[in-house]
Amino acid sequence: MSAPADETAGDLPVRDVGLNLAGIGGLQESSAVQNVKARQAVSRISREELEDRFLRLHDENILLKQHAHKQEDKIKR
Questions:
Q1: What global pTM score does this model have?
Q2: Which residues 6+ apart lie within 8 Å of 10 measured at CB?
Q3: Which InterPro entries does UniProt cross-reference here (predicted)?
């Protein structure tokens, strides 16, 4: 049996709802709800823990940027 040319051919069909004003409002509402939940989760964590997490993520971000820059330099050569 041959594999389909498109790997998504076996996926289930989905309904295209298009863009309408109700859809945009629904997206904004769910985003607002997610924002509230995220704020509640952050408020449960101590300030020290938040600072530690921020600094770790900041350091990791700097290291990733440096690594990406080195890779770009290698590609240029």
A1: 0.49
A2: 4
A3: RPGRIP1_fam
